[in-house]
């Protein structure tokens, strides 16, 4: 079950920061020339199966052992660079559960993305929330392996995560701001180490019992520790991205508030979807699997893919 994982990350109500110096602006996306990976000039591997999730693949990096599931688009061509999404599940989950719940690998591959869900030994309990720890090094090696094996656009690498996986998404991406073009998170949106503008799409429920939405509240993931609220966190991102003025607000349906900060430097975007009454869950997921899901008005997966498309 992915809807109720704990987020074990020590973040109080102080200010932290994160970014990317290499995003493609939406205006430039149509004329962007891909930076091909080494796999674009090598012979395609025999085991490449387009159009679905491959068999779980092992990857050993020094003393770190892990696996990953990779979804390859039907449109994949060895000489045509494809964008890549790194997807990180929440506490207590795994690649199979994450893929079934969010449909991000399947829908991402339909949209032309390679989507990879890593699974290290450490992440069986929780992601190691360090920018250069064993989990991060495993992901580094995984990207290198994929870029050597597949034809990937190195300027179109994205990261997305839920709960503890969202925290890891931010920490990992902020430490590699020249490699990750944009990020998307559900339930966690703290700034964790970025220094330059980074496009970010965030979704958070106002009734999340684990990672509270309200500033100064305490949640089950960090008992007794007051969190920095979602609105303040997103304001931190807007300042980091040097966005102009206050966010534009609009509602879609009765349970979803959209805030978007415009005029951000370097063509980045800062967008927040607030799910009124939403719990600690992936919006739009299969309600049979997602405990606490309170809205069907928005799909996190659809929003992420649309957001990443702007920076391809």
Instruction: Report the CATH architecture.
Output: 3-Layer(aba) Sandwich
The description of the largest β-sheet is: 11 strands, mixed
CATH fold descriptor:
Rossmann fold
- The share of residues in extended strands comes to 15-25%
In short:
This protein has 312 residues and is α/β, with parallel strands linked by helices. The chain is 20% helix and 24% strand.
Describe this structure in words.
The protein is built from 6 helices and 11 strands. Helix content is 20%, strand content 24%. By secondary structure, the chain is α/β, with parallel strands linked by helices. It has one domain: Alpha/Beta hydrolase fold, catalytic domain (Rossmann fold, 3-Layer(aba) Sandwich), CATH 3.40.50.1820. The longest helix has 16 residues, at 134-149. Strands 1, 2, 3, 4, 5, 6, 7, 8, 9, 10 and 11 form an 11-stranded mixed β-sheet that branches. The relative contact order is 0.20. The protein has helices spanning 95-102, 104-110, 134-149, 164-174, 230-240, 300-309, and strands spanning 52-53, 57-61, 64-72, 82-88, 114-120, 152-162, 182-186, 200-205, 244-252, 256-262, 270-275. The two termini are 32 Å apart.
């Amino acid at each position: 079950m992915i809807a109720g994982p704990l987020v074990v990350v020590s973040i109080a109500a102080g200010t932290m920061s994160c970014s990317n110096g290499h995003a493609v602006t939406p205006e430039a996306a149509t004329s962007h020339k891909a930076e091909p990976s080494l796999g674009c000039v090598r012979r395609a591997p025999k085991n490449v199966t387009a159009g679905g999730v491959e068999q779980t693949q092992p990857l050993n990096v020094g003393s770190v052992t892990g696996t990953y599931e990779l979804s390859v688009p039907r449109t994949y061509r060895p000489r045509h660079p494809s964008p890549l999404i790194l997807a990180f599940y929440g506490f207590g989950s795994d690649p199979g559960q994450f893929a079934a719940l969010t449909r991000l690998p399947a829908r991402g591959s339909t949209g032309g993305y390679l989507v990879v869900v890593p699974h290290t030994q450490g992440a069986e309990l929780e992601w190691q929330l360090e920018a250069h720890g064993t989990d991060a090094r495993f992901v580094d090696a995984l990207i290198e392996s994929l870029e050597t094996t597949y034809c990937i656009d190195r300027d179109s690498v994205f990261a997305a995560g839920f709960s503890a996986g969202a925290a890891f998404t931010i920490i990992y991406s902020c430490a590699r701001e020249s490699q990750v073009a944009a990020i998307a998170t559900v339930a966690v949106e703290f700034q964790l180490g970025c220094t330059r503008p980074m496009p970010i799409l965030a979704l958070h429920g106002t009734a999340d019992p684990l990672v509270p939405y309200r500033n100064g509240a305490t949640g089950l993931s960090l008992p007794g520790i007051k969190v920095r609220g979602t609105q303040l966190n997103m304001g931190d991102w807007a300042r980091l991205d040097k966005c102009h003025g206050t966010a534009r607000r609009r509602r879609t349906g009765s349970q979803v508030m959209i805030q978007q900060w415009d005029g951000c430097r370097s063509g980045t975007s800062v967008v927040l979807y607030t799910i009124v009454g939403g719990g600690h869950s992936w919006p739009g997921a299969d309600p049979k699997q997602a405990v606490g899901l309170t809205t069907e008005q928005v799909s996190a997966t659809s929003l992420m893919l649309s957001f990443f498309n702007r920076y391809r």
